[in-house]
Amino acid sequence: MSKSIKDMGWDELVQGAALFSFEGDVDYEMSQVQPEDRNYAETNSRNAYVGDWRVEKPVFNKDFCIDCQFCWIYCPDTSIIARDKKMIGVDMDHCKGCGICVEVCPTNPKSLLMFNENTDNEEALTQWPEKSEEKGE
User: Fold this and answer.
1) pTM, whole model, 2 decimals?
2) How far apart are CA 137 and CA 134, in angstroms?
3) Phi, psi (deg, nearest 5) at residue 81
């Protein structure tokens, strides 16, 4: 008798298995619920700290953020911390360092950049690129 995905441990999952972040339906209303009050699925990394094996980490620079919420929408582990539709930081206990938040950030320069895990955030902020002029303007 085979186990359902919900009954498997992380080391028993097959390649390509779908891991769901939340129990039940997910809709716009989910964005109105604070992270600590959400109905997380057993398979969500919220239940397991993964930050200790991260090699690179996102660093947030609020000076460039336009609060578009793209990082919050696309983060596979709900590691983006937002309050009242404003980005306020990254939950480093659950961030795997995948860099999706950086890829979807539309600002110039980006408000999130990846740095080595051992780089101090204050040091990373001093290395932020300056706004570049768009070609053709």
Assistant:
1) 0.66
2) 6
3) -100, 120
